[in-house]
Design goal:
Layout (H helix, E strand, L loop, with lengths): L8 E3 L9 E3 L8 H4 L2 H5 L1 H4 L6 H8 L13 H11 L4 H7 L11 H11 L11 H13 L6 H5 L8 H10 L4 H11 L10 H8 L3 H7 L3 H9 L8 H7 L13 E3 L3 H8 L3 E6 L6 E6 L7 E5 L13 H8 L11 E5 L8 H11 L7 E2 L3 E5 L5 H14 L5 E5 L17 E4 L9 E11 L2 H4 L11 E7 L2 H6 L5 E8 L3 H10 L4 E3 L7 E3 L11 E12 L2 E4 L6 E4 L2 E6 L10 H12 L7 H13 L7 H7 L3 H8 L3 H19 L26 E10 L2 E11 L17
Parallel strand pairs: 3-11, 14-16
Antiparallel strand pairs: 1-2, 4-9, 4-10, 5-6, 5-7, 7-21, 8-22, 10-11, 12-13, 12-17, 13-14, 15-17, 17-20, 18-19, 21-22
Helix pairs in contact: 4-8, 4-14, 5-10, 7-11, 8-10, 19-24, 24-27
Length: 721
């Protein structure tokens, strides 16, 4: 095996001294030959050979996709294995660990390459194939209890410390270049090189991306393709043979973010859709195979990993809602639940089947309400706007817009966004997710993350947000500042360059600092900062909602993002811990009764959120008015934008609660979309019913977490298509 990415990558897929595959990659993330499919075309005959293991090749190109394999090997353990294998002394071990030094600009792979360049292996001309490397990694994963049951079932008894011995025997045979990329392969991180998944799959076989939608398993799908003629005439035969199968995860539909009502309607393109409230929680796909008796439940996570044992607390709720093991169980052989869309039938039929299948029980299983909107009608924008405003005022996370269409469309004449879902949250609308100013009290460094920035000698990659607990006492000079760590954030390259150009903080090692009291409430599960800033900088942060970390009683921001950096503000004026908790409660708590005025304010604000501050349906109406046309010609585009923002300001001010903080020129409406009462958090599932070995239809349901009996991981059953 020979691996090389920043300049070239060679893969020996069979025991041979000649490289099987070669492609050139420019420094960074541009993949020139791979983008033009030249790499696959050049070696098409070798790739199509029956002796080629496509799964091993694709697993090597896209290691992060093998979520079923967990090696339990991080950088710390791996450099110990490498150091022992290469017989490194103390000084060279320090060189191997140079990637841990902030500003070094190298990762563990670079360090391994540097060591082997100075003292190359003597046996690096031995044959190593991709299959052999893949087999070793598979055996290492089989020994981990976190790998999928299928991987663990293939485990062979190799004795203790097999991973150390196996990897050591490989490292002593590799060149410096190959050892670098093997290291990144084991860590499942090729940064800064990024291989686009669709390009890799479609280049390998034109039908592979489509087939993975139905059976999302590299090993099974590539084995099927191995025995299929690649001519165009076999297209229909391949598709007809590939049907959803119990025990194999079905791929997810594409999801897009809606940025405004107009943006959603542009993607819908006049097709009928159903609108549902988005359920906050973890995605699950549940397979029910009645032929397995009592152990008929199998659960896949969003990444594709088998999480049946991890979600054992959900099994009783699933059994009750589907009446499994009871005489009136509606299933004959099995079904697949995924909670978003249902395939192979009209929406009205799908929903009827869902109602017939699911036994609803408050706190355990409920069917999400949906609203059908005919987007070809002139009232579509108003209907969609009203549905979204209702969701906002009820403190919902957002809405999901689903096409009334088949789950997947395999026709050769596909329409844009035809089988895609749209998520619309108010935080997706520009300026509507701002929370406020937060103090950044420290930072840490991660070598892999540093590779994503084109900034030399970068010292910090992660920043720690702290909220002051004793503002009044600090302002009076009576107490030392006491912070609670609530979140850890990363910033993009533009903000990072701004940060480095305008801020040169005095830093103190975290273990040595005594200027602040720091309590790790919200960030207790992460490693502490390596340095503390003596004069904290201020980040303007926005987020999508609030949640509580495991074993924590306090709220922290969910998916926080930094939008601005302020160098002229004091940490004393930033959001305090009490203010953050109050903001979270206000955003989470569902109002006791509907507030019509608040909803009207939100509708007005949504109209102004469309491009140029003009509602999408108002534009068509005004176009018929001569007076409006003349008036619009008298204003420049910039004046229209300013007028739209000015008109929106009052609507947004009325819509937002007191805790929301937004830009002075355009106050933000309520900033958080959370599902309501904490017990109602969950996740959607989709159901495909199987009869006599064929897929008859699909259905959907929603499992909600019961306050006492079902844990927070409980999924919700959602309206499916």
């Amino acid at each position: 095996m020979s691996l090389l990415l920043p300049t070239a990558m060679n893969l020996c897929a069979t025991p041979s001294l000649k490289p099987l595959l070669t492609f050139t990659v420019s420094t960074g993330i541009s993949i020139a030959l791979l983008k033009h499919r030249g790499w696959f075309k050049e070696h098409r005959s070798r790739l199509a050979s029956v002796d080629n293991d496509a799964s091993a090749v694709l697993s090597t190109l896209l290691p992060e996709r093998r979520t079923d394999r967990v090696y339990c090997i991080q950088a710390t353990r791996l450099h110990s294995i490498i150091g022992h294998a290469l017989g490194l002394g103390y000084s060279r071990v320090l060189e191997l660990r140079r990637h841990e030094t902030p500003g070094s600009g190298v990762d563990l792979g670079d360090c391994v390459e540097g060591i082997l360049k100075s003292t190359p292996n003597t046996a690096q001309d031995q044959e190593l194939s991709v299959e052999k490397i893949d087999a070793v990694l598979r055996e290492i994963a089989a020994a981990s209890r976190f790998s999928s049951p299928k991987i663990r079932a293939s485990r062979q008894d190799h004795g203790e410390k097999y991973a150390n011995r196996a990897l050591s025997s490989i490292y002593v045979q590799l060149s410096a270049r190959d050892a670098k990329w093997l290291t990144r392969l084991i860590l499942k991180n090729y940064q800064p090189v990024v291989l686009e998944e669709y390009t890799v799959f479609s280049s390998y076989h034109v039908l592979l991306p489509q087939l993975l939608k139905v059976r999302d398993d590299l090993t099974i799908t590539t084995a099927f393709l191995r025995h299929v003629n690649q001519s165009a005439g076999d297209y229909n035969r391949i598709i007809s043979a590939m049907k959803p199968k119990l025990g194999i995860k079905v791929g997810r539909q594409p999801w897009f973010k809606g940025r405004s009502i107009k943006n959603c309607l542009d993607m819908i393109k006049g097709r009928p859709v159903s609108v549902e409230q988005k359920i906050d929680g973890e995605y699950c796909q549940i397979h029910i195979d009645l032929s397995k008796g009592y152990h008929c439940i199998q659960i896949f996570s969003k990444s594709g990993k088998d999480s049946t044992n991890d979600r054992a607390a959900l099994h009783s709720a699933i059994r009750d809602s589907l009446r499994l093991g009871k005489p009136d169980c509606p299933l004959k052989q099995g079904c697949i639940l995924e909670g978003e869309l249902v395939v192979y039938s009209d929406k009205s039929e799908r929903r009827k089947r869902l109602v017939d299948l699911i036994t609803c029980r408050k706190g355990y299983a409920e069917i999400v309400q949906s609203q059908v909107i005919a987007c070809s009608k002139r009232t579509a924008a108003a209907d969609l706007r009203e549905a979204f405003a209702k969701c906002i005022t009820s403190r919902g996370e957002g809405i999901v817009i689903k096409p009334d269409a088949p789950y997947f469309d395999f026709s050769t004449t596909q329409k844009p966004y035809a089988c895609c879902n749209i998520k619309l949250k108010k935080e997706y609308i520009q300026g509507w997710g701002d929370v406020g100013d937060f103090a950044v009290i420290g930072a840490s460094y991660d070598a892999a993350s540093a590779k994503t920035y084109n900034i030399p000698k970068l010292k910090w990659t992660h920043f720690y947000i702290g909220c002051l607990q004793n503002r009044n006492q600090v302002r009076a000079g009576n107490e030392q500042a006491r912070f609670v760590l609530v979140n850890v954030v990363e910033i993009n390259e533009i903000l990072m360059k701004t940060f480095l150009a305008h801020y040169s903080p005095e830093t103190i090692a975290f273990e040595e600092q005594d200027i602040f009291e720091i309590e790790p409430y919200g960030a207790a599960h992460t490693k502490p900062p390596t340095v503390v800033f003596a004069d904290p900088v201020i980040f303007d942060v926005r987020c999508f909602s609030f949640d509580k970390e495991p074993n924590s009683r306090y709220w922290s921001m969910r998916f926080p993002m930094v939008s601005k950096i302020h160098f002229d503000r004091s940490y004393i004026d930033a959001i305090t811990f009490d203010e953050l908790q109050e903001a979270a409660k206000t955003a989470i708590e569902t109002p006791q009764q509907e507030d019509n005025q608040e909803m009207m304010n939100w509708i007005c604000a949504l109209k102004k959120a469309d491009p140029r501050g003009l509602a999408v349906d108002a534009i068509s109406q005004e176009s018929t008015s001569t007076e409006s046309t003349v008036s619009s010609r008298q204003h420049s585009a910039e004046e229209q934008r300013r007028e739209g923002n000015g008109a929106a300001e009052e609507d947004l001010r009325l819509a937002k609660p007191a805790y929301a903080r937004g830009p002075p020129a355009l106050p933000a409406p309520p900033t958080f979309s959370v599902l309501g009462p904490e017990f109602a958090r969950g996740q959607s599932q989709r159901i495909y019913e199987t009869r006599r070995g064929t897929v008859a239809s699909a259905i959907q349901a929603s499992f909600l977490r019961h306050p006492q009996k079902v844990p927070s991981e409980a999924p919700v059953i959602h309206q499916l298509k």
